[in-house]
């Protein structure tokens, strides 16, 4: 017993040290800075809740929040549905199942910035060329207004993240005991019944994880946003992380940006923790 | 079995710990080597990506001459990114010896780090006005990089084919007439045979808010303020020439490929305008500066050789003029050691006043030198040559956008112009909102 305690400490120490140095300490320093008029060159003077007061008056920040929330809701749904369908698809016994798994997972291995630029090219040039050729007005001028910017981001995120979710769902699907499904077969259940009454309830823990990951990723989305739309046109597709970055590095309002970041942290934590709590309660124990 | 497991886990722990220790050390490993000895090591942190390789070559040449000097060059591109990266660099404790500042706001932010360079030999050689942005209380803190200018860049071959004489375009009326004539000829197919891709007169990248919010607007605010310092000190903005600004923006939008769907201008970016616009002869005129030469030249040499610069007229004020200014300045870190500062000053001096250095400035960097004494070396590309012509004739407007409130140009005015194109704002709202924000941000 004593031995295992020693090992426990030894194993946990390095990572705990790293965690404290790169996460906890910067967070505390960051919270401190949010109460100062820091300009990133010299530590500023104490200004109390001034920065926070300004954040709540900042219309752009509020718009970003609304936009991000909308985006998160839509993309959480689309990422998880697509991911689940892909997982169902590649767990069927088929010759190319394994090949498809890697294909679907591949987008996840490409960096967000590069993906953003690739999709920017597809939306502004590819779509435009096809649209002009076929005379479809709908495909022209993508990313030049808020609506197409929004859907562009959703498409990009779904394309990238679905493969990752697929892997999670594959693991969950493979954990479902074959005997349950066979028993259902004998009872005369069709595939829809099996999916609805056996597969989905048993995969619920994975849904909790999937929704959690998609939700926090969507809220924190930065590089794809920067590369695809850059917040444009007129900052209407600017998400929270980008808004915070711009406040800091463009407007040089580092204190205000820190305050926004602290609020952002609270929002993301509150939303994701609530989601996990609710998701956990709905899970079925086997 | 148990022993093997143990030794394995021990190894893992050791690796983890050592990697942690190593990363912790690597930060200051560099600096320890230059203490005490004669060898002086300095670092340059600069923003101009276009000259990164050539500057590296110049650094090598300087090092060959001065064996005891080692210069580390680091380049991070783009206006905003550079500012952010520079802050991060200073925060990390890895302060560079030589770095860049942009204008009055930067000078104010960094003033506690800037070495007074007033005693340097190049100060007396500087052309009129190029040091105004970095002079505070009579002390000069920066060495100007180069002169840059912009205006309406046009394709001489297309003008010739359409029978337009560019030397007659000296004011807004003649510009508008030429544009209309060109537009007619494009629409009735007269130029189709010679320029099959030509589809419009202008391309205007509203997505690049630095083009709209900084450059276009500077033309008009440059008439209102006489220097970036004046703009920097201004508490309020009159926007005297807002209507003239509207007319030049409308002109560029109305004769662009997106004239009927102006909101799509908000997705037009730099490469659409320059590489996939001007260089491909898809459009005839764009609002840009001499920095596009390299890009166009790499795509179509013939187009690049036939570029020229038209003035950007401010109706009823100063019409035959282009904005010419200094994009960035070299500065020396006050907190470096004496030896480092000496080397840094000597290097900058060498680069801008020695014959080898001048050769680099003009023929390798393609800079328009902001100093006297470059008589023998003339810019080789047509755009720089045109800018020099405007400058020599005194037909220039100063760059004042460095004196705008931080981010006002791009993130307020540039964004408002996007709203104008999208139909969210009327022009009056653009002007009102921009004025109000200026006051708020001061």
Automatic annotation (TrEMBL), chain A:
Q: Which UniProt keywords apply?
A: Cell membrane, Membrane, Transmembrane, Transmembrane helix, Transport
Cell membrane found in the keyword field: yes
For this protein, the parts annotated as crossing the membrane are 7-35, 71-91, 103-123, 150-172, 202-222, 261-278
Q: What is a biological process (GO) this protein takes part in?
A: transmembrane transport
The UniProt record lists the ABC transmembrane type-1 domain at 65-275
* Record localization: Cell membrane
How would you describe this protein's topology in the membrane?
Multi-pass membrane protein
Q: Which Gene3D superfamilies match?
A: MetI-like (1.10.3720.10)
Please tell me one Gene Ontology term that the record gives under cellular component: plasma membrane
Which family, according to UniProt? Belongs to the binding-protein-dependent transport system permease family.
Question: What is the protein's given name?
Answer: Carbohydrate ABC transporter membrane protein 1, CUT1 family
Q: Which organism is it from?
A: Alkaliphilus peptidifermentans DSM 18978
From TrEMBL, chain B:
UniProt keyword annotations, A-Z: Signal
> Record's superkingdom?
Bacteria
Q: Which InterPro entries match?
A: Bact_solute-bd_prot1, SBP
Can you name this protein? Raffinose/stachyose/melibiose transport system substrate-binding protein
Extract the Pfam families matched here.
SBP_bac_1
Q: Which residues form the signal peptide?
A: 1-24
């Amino acid at each position: 017993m004593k031995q295992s305690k020693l090992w426990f400490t030894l194993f946990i120490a390095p990572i705990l040290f790293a965690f404290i140095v790169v996460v906890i300490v910067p967070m505390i320093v960051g919270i401190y800075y949010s109460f100062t008029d820091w300009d990133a060159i010299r530590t500023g003077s104490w200004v109390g809740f001034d920065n926070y007061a300004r954040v709540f008056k900042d219309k752009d920040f509020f718009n970003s929040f609304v936009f991000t929330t909308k985006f998160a809701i839509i993309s959480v749904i689309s990422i998880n549905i697509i991911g689940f369908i892909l997982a169902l698809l590649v767990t069927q016994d088929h010759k190319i199942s394994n090949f498809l798994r890697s294909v679907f997972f591949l987008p996840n291995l490409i960096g967000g910035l590069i993906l953003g630029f690739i999709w920017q090219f597809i939306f502004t040039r590819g779509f435009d060329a096809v649209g002009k050729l076929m005379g479809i007005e709908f495909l022209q001028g993508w990313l030049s207004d808020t609506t197409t910017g929004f859907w562009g981001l959703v498409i990009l995120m779904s394309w990238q993240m679905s493969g990752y979710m697929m892997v999670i769902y594959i693991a969950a699907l493979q954990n479902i005991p074959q005997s349950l499904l066979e028993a259902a077969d004998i009872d005369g259940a069709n595939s829809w019944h099996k999916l609805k009454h056996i597969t989905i309830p048993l995969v619920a823990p994975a849904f909790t994880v999937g929704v959690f990951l998609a939700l926090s990723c969507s809220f924190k989305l930065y590089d794809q946003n920067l590369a695809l739309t850059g917040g444009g046109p007129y900052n209407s597709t600017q998400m929270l992380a980008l808004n915070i970055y711009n406040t800091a590095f463009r407007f040089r309002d580092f204190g205000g940006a820190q305050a926004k970041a602290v609020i952002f942290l609270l929002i993301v934590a509150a939303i994701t923790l609530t989601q996990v709590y609710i998701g956990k309660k709905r899970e079925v124990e086997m | 079995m148990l022993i093997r497991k143990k030794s394995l886990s021990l190894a893992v722990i050791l690796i983890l710990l050592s990697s942690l220790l190593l990363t912790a050390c690597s930060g200051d490993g560099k600096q320890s080597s230059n203490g005490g000895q004669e060898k002086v090591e300095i670092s340059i942190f600069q923003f101009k990506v276009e000259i990164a390789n050539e500057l590296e070559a110049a650094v090598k040449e300087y090092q060959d001459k001065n064996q005891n000097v080692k210069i580390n060059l680091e380049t991070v591109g783009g206006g905003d990114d550079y500012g952010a990266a520079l802050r991060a660099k200073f925060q990390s404790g890895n302060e560079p010896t030589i770095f860049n500042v942009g204008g009055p706001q930067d000078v104010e932010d960094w003033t506690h780090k800037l070495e007074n360079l007033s005693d340097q030999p190049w100060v007396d050689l500087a052309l009129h006005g190029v040091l105004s942005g970095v002079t505070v209380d009579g002390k000069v803190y920066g060495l100007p990089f180069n002169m840059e200018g912009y205006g309406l860049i046009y394709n001489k071959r297309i003008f010739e084919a359409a029978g337009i004489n560019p030397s007659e375009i000296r004011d807004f009326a003649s510009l508008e007439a030429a544009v209309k004539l060109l537009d007619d000829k494009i629409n009735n197919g007269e130029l189709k045979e010679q320029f099959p891709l030509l589809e419009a007169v202008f391309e205007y990248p509203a997505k690049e808010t630095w083009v709209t919010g900084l450059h276009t607007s500077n033309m008009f605010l440059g008439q209102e303020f006489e220097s970036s310092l004046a703009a920097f000190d201004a508490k309020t903005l009159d926007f005297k020439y807002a209507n003239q600004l509207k007319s030049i923006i409308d002109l560029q939008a109305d004769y662009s490929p997106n004239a009927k769907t102006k909101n799509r201008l908000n997705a037009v970016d730099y490469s659409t305008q320059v590489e996939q616009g001007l260089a491909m002869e898809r459009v005839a005129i764009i609002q840009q500066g001499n920095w596009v030469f390299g890009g166009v030249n790499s795509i179509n040499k013939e187009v690049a050789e036939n570029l020229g610069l038209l003035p950007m007229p401010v109706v009823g004020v100063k019409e035959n003029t282009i904005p010419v200014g200094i994009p960035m300045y070299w500065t020396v870190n006050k907190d470096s050691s004496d030896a480092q500062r000496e080397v840094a000053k000597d290097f900058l001096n060498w680069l801008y006043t020695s014959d080898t250095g001048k050769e680099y400035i003009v023929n390798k960097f393609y800079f328009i030198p902001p100093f006297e004494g470059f008589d023998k070396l003339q810019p080789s590309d047509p755009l720089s040559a045109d800018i020099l012509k405007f400058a020599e004739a005194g037909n220039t407007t100063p760059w004042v956008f460095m004196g705008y409130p931080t981010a006002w140009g791009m993130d307020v005015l540039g964004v408002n112009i996007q709203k104008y194109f999208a139909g969210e704002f009327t022009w009056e709202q653009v002007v009102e909102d921009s004025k109000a924000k200026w006051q708020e941000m001061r």
